[in-house]
Each structure stands twice: as C-alpha cells, then as structure tokens.
Amino acid sequence: MRIGFVGTGTITEAMVTGIVASPLDVAEIIVSPRSREIAARLAGRFPSVRIGRDNQEVVDVAEILFLAIRPQIAEEVIAELAFRKGQAVVSVIAATDRPRLLSWINEEVNLTQTVPLPFVADREGVTAIYPPNPGVAALFAALGTAVECETKEEYDLLAAASALMGTYFGILDRTTGWLAEKGMEREKARAYLAPLFASLAQTAVRAQATPLDTLRREFSTPGGLNEQVFADFERGGGSRALTEALEAVLRRIRR
Question: Is 71 annotated to bind ligand?
C-alpha cells in the first residue's frame, strides 16, 4: 500500500510517525514538499518516506491520499490537482464541509473525513471518521481507536468536542500556576497534576458502562472538597461558559 500526504504539517508528521510504527503493510509514504523542514525530517527519520516532486505526484502515486492542508488555503491547493475516479481520499481539513471538498476535488472520489489528533504519533489516538469506511477505520484503529460516525451531525459534534484539548491543558496550566503562586515548585506541581488527570481519564475509559455523572459523584465525598469545587464551578458559570463555547465552535463548523 502506498499512502500520500498533500500538506506536511503537525498532523501529517504525527500520522506518519504512527503509521511507520504500526503493523500496517505500507510499502511507501509520499509527502508533499510544502513544508520542507517537516518533509525533510520525516524522510530522514524513516526509510519508507520520500518527498514528492510536487503535490500532483503525491496524488498520482497514492492509493490512499490524505489531504492535510490548512483550511485557509485548501481550495487553492486542491483545485489545482487532478484526482482519479474512485480514488480513496481522506480529508483531515478542519471546519470544511463535504460538498465544498467535493466541488474542489471535481472528481468522483471515495471521500472520507476524519479528525485525527496528535496522539496518533504514539498510536494512542482516537479518530472520528465520516462516513463509515472499513478501510480507513482499520488504518486509524492501528493508530489507536476509530469512531465511525453514521451521520454528518455526529461527526460535527465530535469535531466540536475535540476543540477542548487546549482547554484541558489550560486548566492544568492554571492549576499548576496557582500551586506555584502558593510556593510550590512548578515542576513538582506538574509532576503531581499530570498523572492525576491521566488517571481520571483512564478511569472514564475503563468504566464505559458507568455514567460520567455517577463517576463525578463517586469521586466527590458528600460535603467534601471535590463536591465544593464543582459546586463553585457551577455557581461561577463554568458549565454555562463551556456549553456556550462548544455551541460557538459547532456554529463555526457548520457554517
């Protein structure tokens, strides 16, 4: 199997790193020369990776073609390319709907949209896929977990929820900063908080049958400190602000 990437940014680097480390039978990975630094780094690290002469060569050679371009320049880049009828094309372009992508491609391709996250580099990621596609799902399953969305609405909702990554690290950073202000070394604060948050996430993954609100209550002793913090968070408008932010992201995705 030959895999091609038009666009050589952070997500492409993460995906290539994960694919090379996976059991997938990939003979060659061709990356475009758009980001020369990342392309050269990948080709230098992995013998199976080579840099294409241009984007069109990547399209011509790839059996599975990934479009990993910034949405601001996606139309300009894609409209110049000639695709094959029936070609397997996987878009990782954010906030770009299917009809627009197909109009730019201007060929009857087998298009799948995905939301891969940086964790695929370590084969620990979860990737949303639309529409369901067994071949693409198998590829992303080798990079962690694949969630196939039956409808565009499901896909958009997961794309919106994926926008919480920065907020997650922001909460860690704010809490670490608060501990540092109280006199603790920042490194020690992070050494405690990062594994704590990771353990909580793993609990949610392992306890799939347990409602998340039940887990919240199980981790909050009545009248205790965890219950107090969540109550203050609610009174301070934390849940409302979170919901409003997600709604705003969803509107942006759907416009």
Answer: yes
